[in-house]
Design brief:
Strand content: 15-25%
Number of strands: 5
Strand order of the largest sheet: 3-2-1-4-5
Number of helices: 5
Helix content: 25-40%
């Protein structure tokens, strides 16, 4: 049986990314892992309010797990969806978990940043694509023409 890991940052487009990843999982008759990373030194505050800094990593992990559980409960096959949250570098943790957990395909989103934003912020999706040993499905957050 196939296993798909959907990696989300819990930003504004996470629901769209999860929905698309779950559609692929249904087509492939695959189990799903909803995955997120608590970045060390950064909180999970809403993008509008900016980052929340805290040292209580276990509490932040529980909060992310609860948010992913809310997404999981919205789907009829929720018993085939597992939740996994780790702490660390999003790009490294995503690859480590995908490679170490018998994942067949990884689903990630990209903001499509260019220019200075891309240079300053980098691209987790681009790094993951370049270093993944498994297929990666990239869902663009900005699906409108530029």
């Amino acid at each position: 049986m196939s296993n798909i890991m959907i990696a989300v940052d819990l930003g504004n487009f996470s629901e769209q990314l999860i929905t698309t990843g779950l559609e692929w999982a249904r087509k492939m008759d695959a189990n799903v892992t909803l995955f997120s990373v608590v970045e060390i030194g950064m909180g999970i505050g809403l993008p509008e309010s900016g980052p929340v800094f805290t040292d209580d990593i276990p509490a932040r992990i529980r909060e992310v797990e609860e948010r992913l559980e809310t997404y999981r409960q919205n789907y009829p096959d929720s018993n085939r969806i597992k939740i996994l949250v780790t702490a660390g570098s999003p790009k490294n943790e995503t690859l480590d978990q995908a490679h170490g957990n018998n994942i067949s395909m990884l689903v990630v989103g990209t903001h499509g940043r260019t220019g200075l934003d891309h240079m300053l912020l980098g691209s987790n999706a681009e790094y993951i694509i370049r270093h993944s040993r498994i297929p990666v499905l990239v869902i663009p957050y900005n699906q409108y023409e530029h």
